[in-house]
Amino acid sequence: MDHFDTMFQGYCFNDIMDSLMYRKMANAIQDKISSNNLEEIATEVWIVKDVDRATIFHRLEELGTVMHASSCRDQGIVIGKNFVMRVDISHLSLFKELSAYLYVPKNEGEKTVKKVERILEPLLIDLTGAAKVHIDWYYETKCEIHCRSTTEVFSDKVEAEAYPFLTLNDEPCEVDDFARAYLESPSSVLLLMGEQGTGKTRLIRHVVKMKGLEAGKKPRVVYTTDLNAISSETMYIEFRCSDHDFMVLEDIDNQLVSRSEGNNIMHKFLAASDGFIAANKKIILSTNLHIDEVDQALIRVGRCFASVATRKLTGMESGRLLRKIAPNVLGEFQPDRQYSLAEVYNRAFHTSSGMIQLHKKSMGFQKGERV
């Protein structure tokens, strides 16, 4: 796949005019990339005001020539003096998300991103309290391991009432204190155990976001749920030998059981956590297993900061959380029932009296469905 096909993956061209424009774009992009030795960098994401697409593309014209096919008005290509940028506009509830897939000269990625941000500044939403996160997503297709890079904005607000079971040194603690203690700890592994909907993904996102806010730079994450990618050495080598801060592996079960049961993946986790090549990196694992089913070497003191068993909330805890996140929403929780975190948030933001808030646009770590 050449550079142009990569940049236009997923674009639609339905008529003759589009086909002619497609070729025009292809020639211009290939010439620009080849003649300037441009290289790909990760996708950048900006959250902008809910203005019409013409306003966005008009501002981008200050960077260079803007072209887009007539059937793809939310997608376009900006050909600048020394870079090429694909732009995708996503329509969200109260704002728009602008994703940019860039080719830039070597070592000029950050400079180019800042240049784009200066142009877009009048349109940008204030993301105070949010963090941009670089994610390298590993997956397998056709028996080969691939990686796609992207940037996401982690703006989810996490309330302490959502995690009343968190502890530090056997004492109840706030979720921020727990996350900060983990980030400052020399231990690398954080193990989250519990059924779906009990907040494992939301807690992971919060930990990563806090890293970005406190470090003042974009955290870098190796991420996958693909069991074949987990089995490959490729992802682990990249994690250990690069400047990634986190490895996040979600929904893994059989890969965490004891090695005596034939688990041939566990040694990779152990080596990545504190093996011969040592570094202060964090590994966050989520599973549906019980602690007794996990290989004990993974959770030994020194290697594992904590193994957290997430759980459903009691009726009283659920009511307390609902009043905190959506005080205008009326609702009662049965005292003899337990409720998942997902159920509480759904009641808060998907009822006639609820409000859809900005940070609710994605629930999963990678814009998925989990909480």
List keywords for this structure.
2 domains, 371 residues, globular, TATA-Binding Protein, 17 strands
CATH top level assignment of the largest domain: Alpha Beta
Count of individual helical segments: 11
**How would you describe the shape?**
globular
The radius of gyration is: 23 Å
Number of strands: 17
Question: What does this molecule look like?
Answer:
This protein is an alpha/beta fold and 371 residues long. It has two domains: 123 residues, TATA-Binding Protein (2-Layer Sandwich); 176 residues, P-loop containing nucleotide triphosphate hydrolases (Rossmann fold, 3-Layer(aba) Sandwich), CATH 3.40.50. 31% of the residues lie in helices and 24% in strands. It is built from eleven helices and 17 strands. The strands form four sheets. It has a seven-stranded mixed beta sheet with strand order 8-7-12-13-14-11-15. A hairpin with a 2-residue loop joins strand 7 and strand 8. Helix 5 packs across helix 6 and helix 10 packs parallel to helix 11. The longest helix has 21 residues. The protein starts with a helix and ends in a 22-residue tail after the last helix.
Quick synopsis:
With 371 residues, the chain is an alpha/beta fold. Helices cover 31% and strands 24% of the residues. The protein has a seven-stranded mixed sheet. Strands 1, 2, 3, 4, 5 and 6 form a six-stranded antiparallel sheet that branches. A two-stranded antiparallel sheet has the order 9-10.
